[in-house]
Amino acid sequence: MSRFLVRLLINALALWLTTLLVAGVRVVPFAPGDTLAVVLTYLLVALVFGVVNGFIGNLVRIVAFPLYILTLGLIALVVNALLLMLVAWLTGLLGFGLVVDGFWWGVLGAVVLAILSWLISIVLRPVLGSSARR
Q1: Separation CA 17–CA 1 (nearest Å)
Q2: What is the pLDDT, as a whole number, of residue 83?
Q3: In 24, 60, 65, 67, which residue has its Cα 20 to 30 A from 74's Cα atom?
Q4: Segment 77-114, tens digit of pLDDT
């Protein structure tokens, strides 16, 4: 359970940093101006992103495996962008959450989000100990 919470916090932090770096990706909180609402919004979007990436993302990667081989993995950029846009659509149904301005912003946002999540995980690995390595 603690590993799940750590991953959730890492994804929320990476998402926050992504919204600061990529102009076409932003998060609309359910109560603008309220700091707690903004933090909870990032945590909820990170949770939705984790669920979508865990279930739908893995299913797409399995089905599209021949395309991954054919394109030498470049199709992963498209898949990750579409997953990010799916998260934006799902959270948009709730009236708050992630907003992606277009497909290419989704590609850039997905790349930046993946790199930031990876970097944060590397930085926190010595602090978290062996639980982060699994």
Answers
A1: 25
A2: 95
A3: 24
A4: 999 999 999 999 999 998 888 999 999 999 999 999 99
Query: What one-letter code names the amino acid at 43?
Result: L
Contacts of 3 (CB under 8 A, 6+ apart): 131, 132, 134
Phi/psi region, residue 129 (left: phi>0; alpha: psi -120 to 50; beta: rest), is: left
Q: Which long-range contacts (CB under 8 A, 24 or more apart) does 35-43 make?
A: 39/12, 41/96, 41/97, 42/12, 42/15, 42/16, 43/8, 43/9, 43/12
Distance CA 28, CA 5 (A): 22
Domain residue limits at 98: 2-132
Could you tell me how far CA 115 lies from the centroid of its own chain? 11
Which structure tokens are listed for 57?
A: 């993302």
Task: Tell me the angle at which helices 75-93 and 103-128 cross, rounded to the nearest 10 degrees.
Answer: 90
Total number of domains in the chain: 1
What DSSP designation does 93 have? H
* pTM of the full structure: 0.87
